[in-house]
């Protein structure tokens, strides 16, 4: 079936069930940024494969909402599908809720699988659609009825992350979480986000490509934990470790039944941004809302984790340096494409001890492809590297010692003066932020201008955040902090910078149809001098791979910038 045929079958089901609109988000049951094959329902129904977007199907219309990172990709992938591209944050494009409130008739029905919609989004739908008495039906997995050969849920084995890597026992972590529960007067705590469950219990899995996470839920209690997971994934070692902290194992989907049956006397702590709507609607006891305590805990890496992460970056730097030499010396001697180069970099990483897998899908983009910030090559778009262009590589490695995220843009042969001017500006932007000193209490948005300054001076902007937190062998994009010049509440990156956080610094310049440049390092937030003015902070750079000096125009740099670049890495 092509996309048009799939939508026709979906509409037939909608007509049968008297549904006016069916909403298909990107997420899995855990609000993950990237999802396993079983959960790629939005891709199935629209053909769009990007990592962000929402599809809305009505009886006479179909739209895909996504942001500027994916406009080019979506335009191409939606051709001939009958699905309209709805460009988020552009002009008078309505939001999903505004669109639904406008087109759905009085007393109509909007349906979706509530397991893949966040609690907050579901509540927004309730509020937006209430004036027209529009009913929400949140238990309709219609995609599952249309998708006949849908991949099953992953059954790959999990593994235990030893304390020499995690730096803290599950018992210690549980004790800290229970302290927060007491502060919130909660007797139980439901955790639905995969990275939070895995961090808390020192577990990892293989259920999402590139992200070593385990499909699971947890309900934490003062005297134990109920873990909802496919028990076939757990080996004897994991069972032994979980028994030490009184973890009971339950079938994965039983969470919905069990949370509904909680005693009315219980008070449950939940995170509205990290819980799906269906799970929330099943809660019948008292609720207190707050961020999962594990979010901040896991973002502030302990000393063992930090030393491991630095070791991972040294290994990764070796691989990236080998790759840089290979690309720059071989592109004009043998056929090298975006895809083959990505495979070669993975090969170099796999030679390093402790390597598990790439930490996200490699973004290897040549020439004008690099103008699309999150372009990822495929067989249909793959091109060969040639003389006189820029080649952007945003990649990372997952090691037992931690995850890496690095971007390097390579100069292939001779490039024009504008490319060098822009390349130099991006390098200056990256180093300006990395060299910052600041007082404790600053947020990412207080410092973001340091990176944007050299680019704003050119009357340019890269129209996205400057950096994000990085998880330890988990999500590469990790809340609760990052760099952005404005606050986006849904990004959950508005916590002040704390010692031990690991954050990226990745400014760029992207010229549509021409080229893209991004240089990305990671650093650790460190304490500096404390005096009468307060606690000063700074960043320790932990990315160890050369910057391509062929792109640098020294006339565009100050002496202190030369000195920094000459000493790096």
Search tags:
single chain, 569 residues, alpha+beta, Creatine Amidinohydrolase, Chain A, domain 1, Creatine Amidinohydrolase, 3 domains, six-stranded mixed sheet, 28 strands, 33% helix, globular
Structural account:
This protein is of the alpha+beta class and 569 residues long. The chain has 3 domains: 3-146, 3-Layer(aba) Sandwich (Creatine Amidinohydrolase, Chain A, domain 1), CATH 3.40.350.10; 159-291, Creatine Amidinohydrolase, Chain A, domain 1, CATH 3.40.350.10; 300-564, Creatine Amidinohydrolase. It is 33% helix and 22% strand. It is built from 18 helices and 28 strands. The chain has a 6-stranded mixed sheet with strand order 4-3-2-1-5-6, sandwiched between helices. Strands 12-11-10-8-13-14 form a 6-stranded mixed sheet. A 4-stranded antiparallel sheet has the order 21-28-27-24. The longest helix has 28 residues, at 303-330. It starts with a helix and ends with a helix.
